[in-house]
Amino acid sequence: MEKENMLKNFVAGIKSVGKSIANGFSSFFSNFVKGDIITKISYFIMGFGCLARKQIVKGLLYLGVQIAYIYYMIQTGSYYIMMLTTLGTQSQGEVWDEELQIFKVVQGDNSMLLLLFGVISVCITIGFLMVYVMNTKTAYKNQCLLKEGKKLPSFKQDWKDLWDKNYHITVLALPIGMTFLFTVLPLIFMILMAFTNYDKNHQPPGNLFTWVGLENFQKVFGGNPMWGETFSRLFVWTIIWAIFATFLNYLFGMLLAILINRKGVKLKKMWRTIFIITIAIPQFVSLLLMSKLLHDQGALNNLLLDLGWISSYIPFLTNATYAKIVVIVINLWVGIPYSMLITSGILMNIPADLYEASHIDGANAVQQFFYITLPYMLHVTTPYMITQFVGNINNFNVIYLLTGGGPLSLDLYQAGSSDLLVTWLYKLTVNEQNYALASTIGILIFIICATLSLITYNKTSAVQEEDTFS
Amino acid sequence: MKKLLALLLAAAMVLGLAACGNTNDAPADDNAGEEKTVVTLKVWAAQDDQDMTKGMIDEFIAANPDKEWDITLAVVGEPDAKTKYLEDPAAAADVFAFANDQLRDLVAAGALYKVTRNAEDVIARNGEGAVGAATLDGQLYAYPMTADNGYFMYYDSSVFTAEDVQTLDGMLAAAEAAGKKVFMDVSNGWYIASFFLGNGGTLAIDANGNQTCDFNNANGLATAEAIKAFTAHPAFITGDDTVLTAGIQDGTIAAGVSGTWNADAISTSLGENYAATKLPTFTVAGAQVQMSSFGGYKQIGVNSQTKFPVEAMDLADWLTNEANQVKRFETRALGPSNVNAAASEAVKSNVALAALSLQSQFAVSQNDVLGAYWTPAEAFGTTMEAKDYSTDLQTLLDTMVAQITAAQ
Fold first, then answer.
1. Do B113 and A103 touch (CB under 8 A)?
2. CATH topology of domain B38-148+296-353
3. Which of A166, A195, A213 is the last residue of a domain?
4. CB-based contact A206 B386, cutoff 8 Å
5. B201 versus A10: which is more confidently predicted?
6. Given its phi and psi angles, is residue B110 left (phi above 0), alpha (psi -120 to 50 degrees) or beta?
C-alpha cells in the first residue's frame, strides 16, 4: 500500500516535471508562430521585443547578455565545449633549446582544466538559453499586453516589483547563485570524473585523461575482481558499522537519559554535566589519544603487561576483529553524550499523566518503556536517527583517526579491514591519485545513502502521521 | 540641470585623476624596463631543513646579483613531495627535494625537467649510486642531494657484542637474555624488502611498465618462514619511529633497524653505548643470508611547470653543490652524495653514516619499484606481525605478488 503510494507520487512527480518542460517547449514554438514581426525578430536579436516597444533598459540588458555570450563563445567558450569531447589531444612535449642547453617543456592540454572549463562553459550556455527563452516569452507577453491595450511595465516598475511582488526572486537569487557556483558546479565536475580514466597514470599536466564511459562502474561490479571484492567487503562492513554505531549509541544514550531522569536520582544536573563534558574535548583529540592509548606498545597494553594480567600485548588496533569492535566501542563513548542530551529533552516532554494512567492500570517499568517511552521517542527521533545512520556511513573521523582503516589486508585493494567506503575513497585519492575510482565510489555511496534515507524517512511515523501523536 | 552639471563635473574630476594616474605611471613603467627581471621561484624543503635551506638560498641570491630574485621557501618534506606535487602541479614548488623512490612516478607524470645543463659536472661530482638513483632510462632527471636515505642496524653495545650483531639469531638471543627487544618495522614495504631481496628476490619492471616480483617462489617462501620466525620471536618488537626512539630511551629496546634521521635521538639515549653497523644475516633453511636493503637517496628536481627553468636549474645545482652538501652534513648530519664531501674524515667517522656505507654494498636500487609494491607488502608484514596464521604463507605470498604485479 505504502509502496504503491510512494511509487504513484514518484511517477506523478516525474510526469508533472515532464509536462512543464513539454509545455515550455510547445509555447516556445507556438509563441513564435503567433508572434508578430517584432516578437519574431526577438527570437534572433535578444531584447528586440523590448527595445522596439520602448522598454529600453530591459532590452539593452537582454541584448548585452547576447553580445556577452557570443563574445565569450568566440573567445574561449566554443573551444572548451569542443575540447570537452576529447579532454585534450596534445600531451606535454619538449624541444631542445641549444642556447640554454635544456629541453624546454612545451605545455600540452591539461585535461583537468579542460574538463573544468568545459563544464563551466556548458553551464554558461544553459544559463544563456534560459535567459534567451525568458527573452522570447517577454517579447510575446509584451505583444499580448499591447494587443489588450494595456501599458507595458517600465523598468522602474519591474525594479519596484523585485522589492515587492517578486521579492522572493530578489531574496533567493544570491543563495541559489552561490549554491550553484560552490556546490552544484564542483559536484558536476567531480561526478564527471567517474567516467574518465583520471588516475596516476593519466595525471595532468604531464599526461592526458579521457572519457571511458561506464568502465569504472563495470570494474567495481566484477570487471576488476580486486576492486569488486574490496567494494563489497567494505560495503558490508560499512553497513554493519553504521547499524551498530547508530543504534547502540541511541539505545545507550536513551537508557542513560532514563536512568538520570528517574525519580529517585539525586544531583541530576551534575550527572548530565559530567557526561556532557566529553563533548567539550574536540572529537579528534580524544580519538587520537585513544589511538595512542590502544596502540600495541601503548599505555593500556603496557599497564596490563606490568600488572601481569596479560602475557603479550592485545592487538586492539592491529587485529581485524578487535579493531572493528574497538572502533564501535570508542564511538559509543564519543557518541552517547549527544544522544543522551537529545533524548533527555524529549523524555522530560512526555506527559506525566500517561505514566500515571498506565501505573493505575498496573503496567510495570518495562511495559511503560515499550508502550509509552519508546514509541514517543521513535516518533520524534527517527529522522534524527536517519541522519545519524547516513552520517555514520560517512563517518570519516572515528575510523581514520583511530585505526587509519587498518590493519591492512591482502584481500583488499589499497584498504584495511576497518576501512569504511569513505576512508577507502580518501586513500584512493590521496595515496593513489585514483580520482576516477574515488569518484565512482563517491557516486555509489551517494546512491546508497540517498536510497536508504529516502525509503526509511518516508516510512517513519513522523512523516506518515504528521501532526499526530496518540 | 544642476544635477547634470554636478555629474559632468564629477566625471571630469575622475577623468582628471585618471589622467594624473597615467602620467605618474608612465615613468614607473620605464623604470621597470631598466630594472632586472624578477625571477620568482618557490622551493620546498623539509621542516627541519628550513633554516639551513634559507641560508643556502640567501647565498645563492648574493652570488647571482645580475638578476632580481624572489624566492619563497615552503615546508614540504621529501617523503611527501610527490603526493603534494601531484595535488596541483602548477601550484607546486619550482625546485623541490624528494626521495628517489618517487622518481619514476614523477617522471611518468611529466613533472620533472631533464637535467641537461651542466649535466656532466653533476654526474662527475656525485657518487655512482646517487646518480643512478636520479637517472631513468639513461636520462638524468634530478640533482643528487644526499646519500643517506637508507637503513641499517643501531644497537646498544652494552647488550650486544660485535659478534652478536653479525646474525639476527645472535641479536635476538642476546636481547632476550637481557630482557630487551630488537626493533624492526616489518609492516612496511621498505623494510620488509630487505629479507626478500637479501635471499635473491627481485623486483623489476616488464616491457608493459608493470611491476614484476618473484617473492612467492621457493626462495620467497623460505624467506617468509624466516620473517614469520622473526616476528614470532619474543624479543621482536615493531612500530614506527616514535616506538623505536621511546624504547631506546627507556631501555626496553636494545637494537633497531632505522636510518640516519634517528641518529641524534638514539645516540643521545645510548650515550657511550651508541653503536651502529650493517644489517645482520638471517637464517634461511639453516644457512645464513645477508639482509639487503633499499639504497635511498634524496635529490632535488625542477618542476616542468616552472616559468624560469634555467634559473630553477641553477638554484637546484647550487643547493646540491659540494659546499652545500658539506653544510648539510655539518648542520644536520645528512650524508653527502658528493664524492669529495663523502670522502672527508668527518663523514667517515660518523657512526651512522659509516654503518650506512657498510650496508650500501648490499643495498638495491629502488628505481625499479613501482607504487603498487608498497601497500601489499605492508599488508603482508601486518599479517606476520599480527601472528595471523589462518592463511598459509604460500597463499599469502601469492596474493601479495598478484596485487603487486596487477596491471595498472
1. yes
2. D-Maltodextrin-Binding Protein; domain 2 (3.40.190)
3. A213
4. no
5. B201
6. left
